[in-house]
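Email to the structure team, subject: Reverse transcriptase domain-containing protein model.

Hi all, the expression group asked for a predicted structure before they design truncation constructs. Nothing fancy, just the tokens so they can compare against earlier work. One-line instruction: predict Reverse transcriptase domain-containing protein, return tokens.
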Amino acid sequence: MFLHLRRNNLQHPNQYGFRTNRSTEEAILDLLDKINSAKNSNQYALMISLDINGAFDHLQYTSIKNSLDNLKYHSSTLETLIDILSNRKVAINTSQGPATWNQQQG
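Reply from the structure team: attached below.
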């Protein structure tokens, strides 16, 4: 999926995750540039950052997908996230052979 997005130039230019030659350091430098640019233009800069420890560990995938669907907003980022949360499977090898089941959370 990410290969398809990269080959077809469908990733947002400000996306740092899952991108070749992109890093968190670049994201921070880009953020600092935007803050300095706003400061030099006598404008305000606002950043909201959320990092909720274990947020996806217990949240039901259907709940996330339904919330995204309710946004009624079309974007490749939302489609990618919905795709990542769809049809997930867990597979392990057992003494009787491979066992798979649907993954609903975590």
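The chain has two domains: 1-50, 57-105. The longest strand covers residues 89-94. Ping us if the truncation boundaries need rechecking.
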